[in-house]
Amino acid sequence: MQIALAVFAAYLLGSVPFAVISSKLFGLADPRSYGSGNPGATNVLRSGNKKAALLTLIGDALKGVVAVLAARHFGLSDTVVALVALAVFLGHLYPVFLKFKGGKGVATAAGVLLALDPVLGLVTLGMWLLVAYVSRYSSLAALAAAATAPLTSALLHGASHQTIVVGLLGMALIGKHWQNIQRLLAGQESKIGSKKARP
To answer: In the chain, N or C: fewer CB atoms in 10 Å?
Structure first.
């Protein structure tokens, strides 16, 4: 019962839509109504309001951090901590509060990784920042980070529960970016900070 409650609570926390909340706080349109239609920080940035985008980014990342640290605080096993990490991430991807149509999970995954292992999180974040700075494509940066995170975890921890979860997060992130991959290949992907029409 304790395990089920921990996983369910993590999923509900992950379902909190900070992109929608921050947009309402700043009097902006629902982020699902413009740009990529994705309720995430990158799309909120397309509104032109950097503060709303930053609040979204921080909120989404903190969901992952809080879920993992809370699980450890209550003395749950490494296996349960891994399940909680996966649950909060899936909550963001498929939030019950948005009819299971959520964001792509980059910020929440970053929060999860930082809480699981600061070194792993910082290496993955560094990869994202490097690719984003060079290419100006948030999606390409996310794909690069998603691909390298499981490899980094394997080098640090071997074939542990954590590495398995990081691998699942990476595969889910890549799957969520399938349309972005197609646009990148077609040269039609929007760069960071650019504005787009309604999806």
So the answer is: N
What residue type is assigned to position 178 of the chain? W
Give the per-residue pLDDT at 188: 86
Q: What is the pLDDT of residue 196?
A: 54
Q: Per-domain residue ranges for the chain?
A: 2-186
List Cα–Cα distances, 5 to 12, 29, 78, 98, in angstroms. 10, 34, 16, 21
What's CA 197's distance to the chain center, in Å?
A: 23
- pLDDT for the residue 199: 46
Q: How far apart are CA 196 and CA 47, in angstroms?
A: 9
Triad 11, 115, 39: Cα angle to 5°: 45
Summary mean pLDDT of the chain: 91
Paired tokens of 71: 């699980």
Residue 118: what residue type?
Answer: P
Question: 122 is written with which tokens?
Answer: 């910082």
HSE-up of 7 (CA within 13 Å, CB side)?
12
Q: What is the DSSP string of 7-39?
A: HHHHHHHHH--HHHHHHHHTTPPPGGGSTT---
